[in-house]
Amino acid sequence: MMKIILGFWLDSASYPDALHGQEASAGTVVTGFNGLLGILETQLGLTIPKQSENLRIAEWQELLRKHDNGNRLYSPSYQTDSWNTAKELLRRRDELVLAGWDPTIHMGGSKWLELLGELEQSNQNRTWGLPDRVRALLAKLEEPVQVHIETITIVDEDKSLWDPWCKQLIEKLKYHGVEMVKAPSEKEKEEEPTTDLSLLKRVLAGESLSQEAKGDGSLLLVRSEQEWDAADYLTSWLQEHGTEQTVIIKDEGSLLLDELLHRRGVAGAGAEGASKWRAVLQVLPLTIDTYWNPIRVERMMELVTIPTSPIPGRIRYRLASALANHPGIGGPVWTEAIEQGLRHYEEAWIEEGLDDQEKKKRRKKLEEKLDLWVRHEYYDPNEGMPLETFVHICQKVSQWAASTYQRTHDPIYAQAIKHAQEVLDGVRTLGVTSVSQLQVGRIMDSVLGEGAKLSHYGEEAAPWQVVNHPGQIWGEADTILWWGFLKNMSGPSIRTWTVKERNWLKEQGVFLTEEDVRRRREAASWQQAIRYANRKLILFAPAKVKGEEIPIHPLWDEIRYAVVKDHHTEKKLTLDPAEWRKQPSVTLFEEPFERVGLNKRNIPEPIRTWQVPEKVVIPREEESATSFESLIGCPVKWTFRYAAKVKPGSALSIPHESLMLGNLGHVILEHLITEKSSWSEQEVRLRAGELFDEFMPKLAAPLLEPKNSIRRDETRRHLQTSLQQFFKVLHQAGVQIQHTELELQKPWSEGVEFKGRLDLVGETRTGKKILFDAKWSRKPSNYKERLEKVSIQLTLYHWLLADHEDEELPVAYFMLRSGHFYSLPHEDFPEDYHVPGPSLLENHDMVRKSVEDVWTQLQQGTIIAPGVPSSDAEEAGSFASIIDPPCMYCEYQNLCGVRRLTT
Question: Is 30 helix (H, G, I), strand (E, B) or coil?
Answer without folding.
Answer: strand
